[in-house]
Structure formats: structure tokens, C-alpha cells
Amino acid sequence: MLKCTQMSFVELKNVRYAYNRGSTSEVVAIKDLSFCVEKGEFVALVGHNGSGKSTVAKLLNGLLLPQSGTVTVDGMNTVSDNVGGSASDNIFEIRKKVGVVFQNPDNQTVASIIEDDVAFGPENLGLEPKEIRRRVDEALKSVGMYEYRERDPFRLSGGQKQRVAIAGILAIRPEVLVLDEATSMLDPKGKREIMDIVTRLNREEGMTVITITHFMDEAAMADKIIVLDDGEAILCGGKEVLTKGELLSGRGLDMPPAIRIADRLRKGGMPIGDVYTVRELTEELCRLL
Ligand code: ADP
Ligand code: MG
């Protein structure tokens, strides 16, 4: 089910991670998880609350280290080969390659001026001021926040804050962008803006995207879907995964709204083709009407 090519860009192999390991309060968050992501893929990792999604996000960039199994990024293991259990010497390189945007934009803001905030990552890479300037401007333009560059990030809307957080990650020029429920605190407009930016980065700039979400309509934008349940991947495949209604509902998930609506319309006699997202459903309806 979860076969990888010879050497995938991101690989988790039989990963286990428990919080408070060995104590009476031990929680096994990731039991035995394997999956892989190829360069340029747009992957959605879906799962109910507590299924282990955020733990995976942290394992991907070495914030957490697997207690057994391996996490590799571009061939680099997050755990050192020499001293068992400690972070690898490559961790700095791995964090440059894997940028993670978290749920709460307020926790990701460090400076009182937007452009300084976005500059934080590249400054930590020790880049020349001119190069930092270039990257900050480019990243802010890419998320449509360049005009706001001299403003205070705390006065922005949730969606704008999250766009700035994405710019801060883009300025590091990662090869993989991981979004951990990055739209969950946003209103529908903010959600759509973020997903449009991410889709464009993937389609036009070839950025590898891993979006972690319990919003199934967001998952429907991805090309590959991995369903996580209690720390294990129970399904992995193309968009057809999203049509497995019974299986998903047994794991606390729904089919995306567009698929459910299309099903009902088909039952009512409308010849609707395969659609997964609201946008596709709208286009299909326009075509038919
Ligand atoms: P998700 O992001 O899918 O909601 P998490 O990865 O946050 O899931 O959590 C997976 C499991 O690990 C849950 O049972 C959660 O309660 C537990 N967990 C998460 N973080 C911690 C922590 N810092 N200490 C103890 N248990 C934790
Ligand atoms: Mg989470």
C-alpha cells in the first residue's frame, strides 16, 4: 500500500514515537508509520483529532526524533548515525529543506514589523543582507503581503498573519512546505487564500507540499492522500481515497462536501462526472446547466 521508490525525497519507515516514554503517562502517538513523498508531490495527511498529525509534522523537520524506525529527508536521517537517539549533524540542513507552518499564526510571529518577521529565518541562515532583502521581498510578494511589509503583524487578520507566517518559511527557500492545520483558525476567505497560494506554489513552482488537515475539502486539493488513524496510516492513494465514505466515517472523517453533494445529485438523475472539490463541482454544474 505504501510503497516508496528507490529513494523518495521524504521517507518515514516504521516510525514509532511515544510522549513521556517509559513513564506511567506514556502516550504512543505514532505506532508504526511508513509513508513517502516524492519531490513535487502535493500530499494531504488527514486524520481525526489526536490521530498523530502534529507529531508527524514535528518528526518531519526533526523537532521530534523517532524512537524507532527512520525519518529521512533527501537521504538525510533526522537521527544521527553515530550516537543513537540524538539529532543528526544534518538537522540544520533538514530544517532548511522542510519548512513547517503551524496552526496558530500568533505563535509564529517574532517581530513587530512584518518584513523583520519574514527576515528572521534567512537571518538565522547567516545570509548577506542583500540576499535577505531579496528573499523577504520575493516571499512577501508570493503571498500577496508585500504592500503590508512595514506594518505591525499583530494588527493583521488571521488569514493575513498566516500568509506572513508562510512568507517567513518561504524566505528560507525550503524544498518541502508542511502545513499543520495552518488554515484551521481562519475564516472561509482566509482558508481559500492560503490554499490558493499553496496550490500555486505546488503547480507553478514545483514545491513539494504536505498539508495536514481534518478539512476534507482541503485534502481534496492534493494529489495523494494519506489517512492517519491512531498513529498508523490506514490508507494511501489518489483522490479515490476520498470517496471511501464508510471507511472514512469509521475513522472520524467525512467525504469532502463536493463528493457528497455530487453523489446526491447523481442519485437525483444528474449526470455529474468525477468531482472532488467545490470548485470542480461548480465547474461541472455550470457545464451541465
Ligand atoms: P493531532 O495533531 O492529529 O491532533 P497529535 O500528534 O497532536 O495529534 O497527538 C497525538 C497523540 O499524542 C494524542 O493522543 C495527544 O494527546 C498526544 N500528545 C500530543 N502532544 C503531546 C505531549 N506534548 N505530551 C503528551 N501527549 C501528547
Ligand atoms: Mg494537530
Can you put this structure into words, describing what you see?
The chain is α/β, with parallel strands linked by helices and 289 residues long. It has helices at residues 53-60, 91-97, 114-124, 129-142, 158-170, 188-205, 216-219, 245-249, 257-267, 278-288, and strands at residues 10-19, 27-37, 42-46, 68-73, 76-77, 98-101, 176-180, 208-213, 224-229, 232-237. The chain has a six-stranded mixed sheet with strand order 6-7-8-3-9-10, sandwiched between helices. A four-stranded antiparallel sheet has the order 2-1-4-5, with helices on one face. The termini are far apart. Bound molecules: adenosine-5'-diphosphate and magnesium ion (MG).
Bound molecules: adenosine-5'-diphosphate, magnesium ion
> Which strand-content bin applies to the residues?
15-25%
Number of helices: 10
Largest pleated sheet? 6 strands, mixed
Low-confidence stretches: none
The SSE string, one letter per element, is EEEHEEHEHHHEHEHEEHHH
Describe the global form: globular
Please state the oligomeric state of the protein chains shown: single chain
Distance between the first and last residues' Cα: 40 Å
**Residue-averaged pLDDT:** 92
